[in-house]
Amino acid sequence: MALTTGERDQVWRAFMRVIAAEPCSFTKQELRAAVDAVDDWATANATAYNTALPTAFKNAATANQKAALLGLVCWLRAGRPLPEGQ
Description:
about 70% helix, mainly alpha
């Protein structure tokens, strides 16, 4: 399910906190447009993502669990520590 405007704002603010110490050459407005684009992409590609999952997991997991899995994989691919610090 697509994020609300408020949730998109939360992502926008969280991203700015996470990358605060990193150099970047984009504006806050450009970041917000990117947040919107990523959320739109996630909505448009949800079926493809679900199809790519192994059948047993796909049939047993909730939509929230599937989204959390994607988020954690992407988070780790971005070089960020996972919640347990590993």
